[in-house]
Specification:
Layout: H1 9-12, H2 23-34, H3 52-57, H4 59-67, H5 91-102, E1 130-133, E2 137-139, E3 146-153, E4 160-168, E5 177-183, H6 187-193, E6 200-201, E7 212-217, E8 224-225, E9 230-234, E10 239-246, E11 253-255, E12 258-263, E13 270-278, E14 290-291, E15 295-304, E16 309-317, E17 322-331, E18 335-342, E19 353-361, E20 366-375, E21 390-391, E22 402-409, E23 449-451, E24 458-462, E25 468-474, E26 479-485, E27 489-493, E28 500-508, E29 513-520
């Protein structure tokens, strides 16, 4: 078992004495595990976080970014639904970084200086079936962001299935995100030919009706691999078209981004479709998507399945006025399934998010979304000053509401397929911080009683008598639920949580704490 799991006692050890963490003994483990994969030479993080001198120089920025949970970049709310390959810090890790910075950021014992990880920046898909690289492009100096599309012709004479997709930025300092589409119409090539420079400019998408999204890359993300037996169909003769987001730059930069594809061997595959099932045109329930100036507006969409379906991933999409994007499903019988909640939407950090296990939706399941737009002067991303009427469209000044789903024909039992069941990103070299932060002196050894154990869909908790605070904490110390209860039985929906060990904690009004170890399967 990974040594990072003993982080749990950091929150629960009674009477532990607080001390100032050091880089060598505590903070390097967190930074090497969660920050260095982007913050290294050749990485997308723009500066290194490998050695003490790096961490000490950037300590205040680390403190601010982790306190705000802006870094590591992970826009979805993990308390709403735990998703695959989450890039999040536990509260204990955030607190350790704060204690280190506020304690003058000491280096620690030189004899304990850890060996930092090394990064080769080599492709994960080492032997791709298809590799396509864009023509070298000189990114012009500009005070505004640039969204540039490039056509990557591929040799695919017959239909095939994509089971792995990897984006390799040619300039990690400049490539902020990449959307990967396939186009069978040839229209993207026409747009490319009409522009004297390599590629063409397009903001919302690639500017081609009918183009199909097949993948998304953002800094820190891993290659996309489909669940076993499933694949995204790559149509014969299709062009791969990428939209690359380049941030503003004061100097000319050069990029040549590559896409690697792994294809399924011949044989039966369940086709994964990537479609905007919830959208601003066909399934919107309070349209049209017309946003008045000086207002915060909310729009909804819903769609009821007419056949059993299994969804493996979700990707919300809106533009600069987007403030919050949230989606959920309700199965027959009223069983609500949380899908994703991005409470602080940022167009610059959009992505496609896989579920830890595919979600089976029986016939008659209704998908819902709620999207909030901020068209006020208080929105720093508002493209209009003063705010103007905004309507549906692909331009920077327009808005969209799309929720892409990766889906296939559903088969009962699909939810047993495991995509990722690690409750927390495994730490580099199985390291763990050495400092234990102290806890309240009111800790007691009593227990909370819950059933069944292990549980999979629902969990009943006996909360005893009187008002209390009920918390559910995962093995890495992250709080997933915090609810005021008033005694008696409480039923919890735990279907969206990863398998593993959890702790139920009941805190009474007098400060007494009772705990119970709960297993989820």
């Amino acid at each position: 078992m990974k040594r990072f799991l003993p982080l749990l006692p950091m929150l629960f050890a009674a009477g532990a004495q607080a001390q100032t963490p050091t880089w060598n003994e505590d903070i390097a483990c967190i930074v090497h595990s969660h920050c260095a994969p982007c913050h290294h030479d050749g990485g997308p993080g723009h500066f290194n976080l490998l050695a003490y001198v790096d961490g000490h120089w950037w300590r205040n920025e680390m403190l601010a970014a982790t306190q705000a949970r802006y870094m590591p970049p992970w826009p979805p709310d993990p308390a709403f639904r735990s998703l695959a390959h989450e890039r999040v810090l536990t509260q204990a890790e955030i607190d350790l970084i704060a204690a280190w910075v506020n304690g003058d950021a000491p280096e620690g014992d030189a004899q304990n200086t850890p060996t930092p990880p090394s990064f080769t920046n080599e492709p994960v898909i080492a032997s791709p079936d298809i590799t396509a690289v864009m023509e070298e492009y000189a990114i012009p100096a500009s005070t505004s962001d640039l969204y540039r599309c490039f056509v990557l012709p591929v040799d695919n004479p017959s239909d095939s299935y994509i089971t792995g997709l990897e984006v390799i930025p040619g300039n990690t300092a400049m490539v902020h995100h990449v959307l990967v589409y396939q186009d069978t119409s040839g229209q993207a090539r026409v747009l490319d030919d009409d522009d004297i420079e390599p590629g063409y400019t397009s903001f919302g998408g690639i500017g081609v009706p009918g183009a199909v999204l097949v993948g998304v890359w953002v800094p820190g993300s891993q290659p996309l691999f489909t669940p076993e037996g499933m694949g995204i169909k790559l149509l014969a003769g299709a062009d791969i078209v990428i939209q690359v987001h380049y941030p503003a730059t004061s100097s000319v930069e050069v990029d040549s981004t590559r896409v690697n594809l792994r294809l399924a061997p011949t044989g039966f595959m369940r086709e994964l479709h990537v479609d905007p099932v919830l959208d601003h045109l066909y399934t919107i329930t309070d349209g049209p998507l017309l946003i008045p100036p000086d207002q915060v507006s909310v729009f909804h969409a819903q769609y009821t399945t007419t056949f059993p379906a299994t969804i493996t991933a979700i990707g919300p999409h809106s533009h600069l006025l987007g403030k919050r994007m949230k989606a959920w499903a309700v199965k027959p019988g009223g069983i609500e399934v949380p899908l994703i909640d991005i409470p602080d939407w940022d167009f610059r950090w959009q992505g496609m998010y896989s579920f830890r296990n595919p979600i089976y939706l029986p016939t008659g399941t209704t998908l819902y979304c709620e999207t909030t737009y901020d068209n006020t002067a208080g929105n720093p991303d508002n493209p209009h000053d003063p705010p103007q009427w905004v309507w549906l469209g692909e331009a920077t000044t327009n808005e969209m509401m799309l929720y892409y789903f990766a889906w296939t024909i559903g088969v009962p039992g699909d939810e047993a397929i495991v995509v990722d069941d690690a409750p927390h990103t495994p730490h580099y070299a199985d390291c763990m911080p050495g400092v234990i932060l102290g806890e309240s002196e009111h800790t007691s050894s009593g227990e909370v009683f819950a059933w069944p154990n292990p549980a999979s869909e629902r969990l009943a908790v006996d909360c005893g008598q009187g008002a209390a605070q009920l918390r559910l904490i995962d093995a890495s110390g992250r709080e997933l639920l915090n609810r005021q209860v008033f005694g008696g039985r409480v039923d919890l929906d735990i279907a969206s949580l990863a398998r593993g060990s959890y702790v139920l904690e009941l805190i009474s009004a007098t400060g007494g704490i009772r705990r119970y170890k709960q297993m989820l399967e």
